[in-house]
């Protein structure tokens, strides 16, 4: 079994890296962090028109390119490296994956082509006040009325890009069980409030529904298997992002250790700094192995995916957070300043560590899934 990337996949990496180096430098990341929307619509359009990134893993029948999850792992890794401020994770890893998993051809026909081109921004609303990411945490209610119409009532928290999404796929509880319902932007009875979070490179919102009209996606009461599949693939995407960010802070630390001189010699020549950088390297390389294997499992729809997704999410997010913290330590006082980019990666590492379940949650998932 060969887990090396193909030349085509490496060319994709080079193309995405060049694009992001041009469109997502540190100054632009800082600028977008301060905006309400949190992204540049022109860059978002270019991602679709020039590189086809939004539709990379969407089937050709629905307007995408028909590639697999390994290619998405490459893209998410590069976006994590660049701290891209854009609704890519919410649109691709969440909304598109859930639509595909739900198997609703009509809904896919209506939404996926727009998501694949970037004309639509999508997201998924799952967590609530309890902060849980599992089936039992869903209390938002979905009720059907005469004529097959549906209404939603409840509140969703931590909705990634929820304040700018054109379509929100809401996980709710109907009389039959867990269902997925689509709500379009501007629907009556939906209130969106942007939330100030520690990591402003990825915006979140609280959504409130008061008898909001919605469209059932998939089968009533049979939505959780599709949500679970989406959560596994989202975990793989976050693991790949973490790998990109962890590699970037490792590079940052090593470069600084070579340049910073104390007592007449580079600090990288001191044993303590050498060991810290070596430990960072070990964690980053191990995280790459976990994320890449999980990407392969997602691409193949392997029965191993639920296990390796939780493994990758728990290990990679912890590796990223520790690497980001160590990077600040290597830099010393300057690493704590607002002007230095180290804190941007530290905040992203922490927010990604918690998003869709922290490492402890995923280790519990892993243990349960392997029968422990």
Account of the 3D structure:
The protein is α+β, with helices and mostly antiparallel strands. The chain folds into three domains: 7-117, Acyl-CoA dehydrogenase/oxidase, N-terminal domain (Butyryl-Coa Dehydrogenase, subunit A, domain 1, Orthogonal Bundle), CATH 1.10.540.10; 122-222, Butyryl-CoA Dehydrogenase, subunit A, domain 2 (Beta Barrel); 225-369, Butyryl-CoA Dehydrogenase, subunit A, domain 3 (Up-down Bundle), CATH 1.20.140.10. The protein is 52% helix and 16% strand. The chain contains eleven helices and nine strands. Strands 1, 2, 3, 4, 5, 6 and 7 form a seven-stranded mixed beta sheet that branches. Strand 2 and strand 3 form a beta hairpin. It is globular. The protein starts with 6 loop residues before the first helix and ends with a helix. The mean pLDDT is 95.
Q: Helices and strands: which structural class?
A: alpha+beta
Helix content estimate: 40-55%
- What's the order of the H and E elements? HHHHHHEEEEEEEHEEHHHH
Radius of gyration: 21 Å
Overall shape = globular
Described by its quaternary structure, the protein is single chain
Write out the CATH superfamily name of the largest domain.
Butyryl-CoA Dehydrogenase, subunit A, domain 3
Sheet with the most strands?
Answer: 7 strands, mixed
The CATH class of the largest domain is identified as Mainly Alpha
Total domains: 3
Task: Give the gist of this structure.
The chain has about 375 residues and is an alpha+beta fold. The chain is built from 11 helices and 9 strands. It has 3 domains: about 5-115, Acyl-CoA dehydrogenase/oxidase, N-terminal domain (Butyryl-Coa Dehydrogenase, subunit A, domain 1, Orthogonal Bundle), CATH 1.10.540; about 120-220, Butyryl-CoA Dehydrogenase, subunit A, domain 2 (Beta Barrel); about 225-370, Up-down Bundle (Butyryl-CoA Dehydrogenase, subunit A, domain 3), CATH 1.20.140.10.
């Amino acid at each position: 079994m060969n887990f090396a990337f193909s030349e085509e996949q490496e060319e994709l990496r080079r193309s995405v890296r060049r694009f992001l180096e041009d469109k997502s430098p540190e100054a632009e990341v800082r600028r977008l962090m301060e905006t309400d929307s949190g992204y540049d619509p022109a860059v978002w359009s270019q991602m679709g028109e020039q590189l086809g990134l939004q539709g990379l893993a969407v089937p050709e029948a629905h307007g995408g390119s028909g590639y697999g999850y390994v290619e998405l792992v490459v893209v998410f890794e590069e976006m994590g490296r660049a701290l891209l401020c854009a609704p890519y994770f919410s649109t691709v890893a969440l909304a598109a994956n859930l639509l595909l998993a739900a198997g609703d051809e009509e809904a896919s026909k209506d939404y996926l082509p727009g998501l694949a081109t970037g004309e639509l921004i999508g997201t998924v609303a799952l967590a609530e006040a309890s902060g849980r990411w599992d089936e039992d945490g869903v209390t938002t209610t979905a009720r059907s009325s005469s004529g097959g119409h549906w209404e939603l009532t409840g509140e969703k928290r931590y909705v990634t890009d929820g304040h700018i999404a054109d379509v929100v796929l809401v996980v709710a509880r109907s009389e039959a069980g867990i269902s997925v319902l689509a709500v379009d932007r501007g629907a009556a009875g939906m209130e969106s409030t942007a939330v100030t979070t520690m990591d402003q490179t990825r915006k979140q919102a609280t959504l409130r529904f008061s008898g909001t009209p919605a469209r059932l996606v998939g089968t009533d009461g049979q939505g959780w298997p599709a949500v679970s599949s989406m959560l596994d693939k989202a975990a793989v995407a976050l693991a790949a992002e973490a790998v990109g960010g962890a590699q970037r802070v490792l590079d940052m630390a090593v470069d600084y250790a070579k340049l910073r001189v104390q007592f007449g010699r580079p600090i990288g020549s001191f044993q303590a700094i050498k060991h810290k950088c070596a430990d960072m390297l070990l964690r980053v390389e191990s995280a790459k192995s976990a994320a890449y294997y999980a990407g392969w499992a997602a691409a193949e729809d392997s029965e191993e995916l639920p296990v390796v997704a939780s493994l990758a999410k728990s290990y990679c997010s912890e590796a990223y957070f520790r690497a980001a913290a160590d990077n600040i330590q290597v830099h010393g006082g300057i690493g704590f300043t607002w002007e230095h980019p180290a804190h941007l990666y530290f905040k992203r590492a922490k927010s990604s560590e918690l998003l869709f379940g922290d490492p402890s949650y995923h280790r519990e998932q892993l243990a349960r899934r392997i029968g422990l």
